[in-house]
Specification:
Chain A is α+β, with helices and mostly antiparallel strands and 146 residues long. Chain A has 4 helices and 5 strands; from the N terminus they run βααββααββ. Classes of the chains: A alpha+beta (146), B alpha/beta (139). Chain A: This is Anti-sigma regulatory factor.
Chain lengths: 146, 139
Amino acid sequence: MHVPSTVAARLPIASDMDLTWIRQYVRQVTAELGFGLVQQTKLVTAASELARNALVHGGGGEMEVTQVARGRVRGLRLVFSDSGPGIADTELALSDGYTSGGGLGLGLGGARRLVHEFTLDSRPGQGTTVTITAWASEPPAPRKAV
Amino acid sequence: MTRPLPAAAGTHVPVLTLDDVLLVTVQRNLDDRAAEWLRQDIARAVTESTATGVVIDVSGVEVVDSFLGRVLADIAPTVKLLAAQTVLAGIRPAVAVTLVELGLTLPGLRTALHIEQALRLVREPCGAHDDTNPRQGGV
């Protein structure tokens, strides 16, 4: 059950200073939404990775913030978009150790592990959009046979 | 929510000398430039002092992403080349959980729960307790 949600904010990603502000902003919003400390830290870290990707590889962009709800559970959706060169092989870009230079290659794959939902949309020449969602409490995991 | 003034950005991290140990306290919000300065500042401080150990207190750090993680991971080998040891003190539980999920386990770093334990550990000969639990202290 999805409740209609509206975009709460758009934050620019154009400098190191913006990354600092994005971390502070996500920390504050997740705290207000009732995220636990670990869940807050995970989402702030994921946001930091993706914002830095947009800055370093995409030449800057923006982060769109939307508060979402599923039943009584509240969550936060963050959309990072840039109009940089894009990614030719998104599967490869998500694998650990893959780097287009400089970093540890943990950014995308690492960010994916830190959130509940993750989608990467990118094509060469058309920029990159990464959408992540995290919930204040863990969504029920499907039962697995042991 | 108001955006803070940009004046605080790029501030150098304070390095304190305690006898033979340099105590580096990383403040709460470290921007990328300050993180890059951190390693250089520590390296310079080690060469300009007679310190044989460096303790980095990160208890005030609420977020370590892969960028800051790499800076921290690079400090120990840099300091080692300058004939000193490094211990990272006070990683927050939420940061530890996040680092592991991120894939960054900082294998080359010696860690301590707090500054007191770190000061003990950093004065021990290198490798003396690498395979033991640092909580056991000097035993």
